[in-house]
Design a protein that fits this description.
Helix content: 25-40%
Number of helices: 9
Strand content: 15-25%
Bound molecules: tricarbonodiimidic diamide
Number of strands: 10
Largest sheet: 6 strands, parallel
Strand order of the largest sheet: 7-4-3-8-9-10
């Protein structure tokens, strides 16, 4: 058992029934010329959490915690991309358009890949997801059941979009959810802060938050 000095109160987890889910640490969100930048965002804050996320990954691997990576991406024919998602707003490039890292948010294109510093290693599950939430239209739920997972540690981008959506999906499915607050980032600092507050408010209504250092210490004990 590991006890994490989380907020709003300590969280006890069993490494054997815990998984780390690293959400969408893809070049398309983190590098210039990708989907995030096409929406008008400054991607540098997201780049800044890569080293911390790598530390969290290393701690999970060392503690034999299951690691799952997700990628937000679509089939090349866009059959799993609702027009409402592709057509909304006024981005410089839309999903499926050719960019400097291949077609935007399309499975198999360079931009849809996970940044090299956080590359999955052998045995780690990689889930491609068409939505913001990682449970929607994916086998994630069945995989977690097979692995007998009870607790999920979350990292990745962006805090209030794909990370929060997935945490809420997981919470409704009965998982204990912990967000590594310095291994997640938003294009909007105020949205990250609000998300952290709303997750742990009301007695951990969605889940817990802790720093990567707090998680590392608990897993090393
Ligand atoms: N992965 C994820 O969060 N997808 C997004 O589109 N996020 C934005 O903040 N745009």
């Amino acid at each position: 058992m590991a006890q994490i000095a989380a907020l709003p109160f300590a969280l006890t987890l069993e490494p054997a029934t815990t998984a780390l889910i690293v959400i969408d640490m893809q070049r398309d969100f983190i590098e210039d010329g990708g989907f995030g930048a096409s929406l008008g965002n400054d991607v540098r804050p997201l780049q800044a959490i890569v080293p911390t996320t790598a530390r969290l990954l290393a701690a999970a691997r060392c503690a034999d915690i299951a690691v799952i990576h997700t990628r937000e991406c679509h089939a090349p024919d866009l059959s799993d991309c609702p027009p409402a998602k592709r057509d909304r707003g006024d981005p410089s490039l839309r999903i499926g358009d050719q960019g400097s890292m291949g077609r935007m948010l399309i499975a198999g294109e360079p931009g849809a890949g996970i940044v090299p510093a956080l590359a999955p290693i052998k045995g780690e599950l990689v889930i491609d997801k068409p939505g913001k939430g990682a449970f929607y239209a994916t086998p994630l739920g069945e995989h977690l059941k097979t692995l007998n997972i009870k607790t999920l540690i979350f990292a990745g981008v962006t805090t209030e979009v794909c990370v929060q959506t997935t945490m809420r999906e997981a919470n409704d499915r009965g998982f204990e959810c912990l967000l590594a607050e310095d291994a997640t980032e938003s294009y909007f600092p105020q949205f990250k802060a609000a998300t952290i507050d709303m997750i742990r408010a009301q007695g951990a209504i969605v889940g817990w938050t802790a720093t990567t250092a707090q998680i590392e210490v608990a897993l090393h004990d």
